Amino acid sequence: MVVSQSGETADTLAALRKANLAGHETLAITNVDDSTMDREATVSFPTVAGRERAIPATKSFTAQLLNLYLFTLMSAVVRNAIDASELKLRLSEVARLPSQIETQLKDWEDATHRVAYQVRKAKNFLYLGRGIHYPIAREGALKLKESAYLHAEGYPSGELKHGPNALVAEGTPLVMIATVDRGDTDSVQRYEKVVQLMRDMREQHASIVAIANVGDELIGELADHTVYVAEMREPLLAICEVIPLQFLSYWMAINNGIDVDHPRNLTKAVLAE
Asked: What pLDDT, in 10s, does the model give residues 77-88?
């Protein structure tokens, strides 16, 4: 499986071609119809997100997450790991997702605008997420680098005390993903570990920006700044929580007088290694 917004990324395309030569079946998830990957893969699963105008990919990234989730559901059907009623429930949740996101967009925009102003002097950020939220933390850090030219690193929450904790200081905000799916025992366990880490970071006088569920007063008390997302199933939380992180990068760039549509040294597609 290859994932590429443009469908032309050089190193990813090379991997696809090597797999094809080895006789493997291949799947391409891209956002551009009739891209090279779309044509050369055994199967193409386009995101259909529409043209991605920004160089720092936003909607195409969230669409890729959605495609991967749908692919997971279809794989579960093929393997008889999910029954018809569960599939219908999960697909209905996916169908509601666009309207749920739309109703939250203004709140996310306003909340991250306030947060960006409050942390505007910071030059270094640590993004922390656990489990499936770790890649979202890395994506949030990447967006901040691309858009605002600030140093940011994404780490698994459980790794913070194994070294990066030395970087924790007043001038280095921690962006912590602290959402939870209450219906998933593994998610609850991850959340509890994040809460404990947050308590420990408060004792170190860290500045914390949290992404949390609506109504989570505990996180609201532990964090200096909190952006809330509606409760939902864990994989869908990952899709939603990245959008406030995209907004945060946008506002931090605006604060620094940066043209977010034309970040320096970056191009829409990396066509050569």
From this structure: 999 999 999 999
Say whether domain 2-82 belongs to CATH 3.40.50.10490. Answer: yes
Tell me if 2-82 shares its fold with 103-255. Answer: yes
Residue 204: both structure tokens together: 């170190």
CA distance 75 to 80: 9
Fold of 103-255: Rossmann fold (3.40.50)
In the chain, where are the structural domains located? 2-82, 103-255
Q: In angstroms, rounded to a whole number, what is the distance separating the alpha carbons of residues 229 and 236?
A: 11
Q: What is this structure's pTM?
A: 0.91
pLDDT tens string 236-273: 999 999 999 999 999 999 998 988 777 665 655 555 55
Backbone phi and psi for residue 135, each to the nearest 5 degrees, phi listed first:
-60, -30
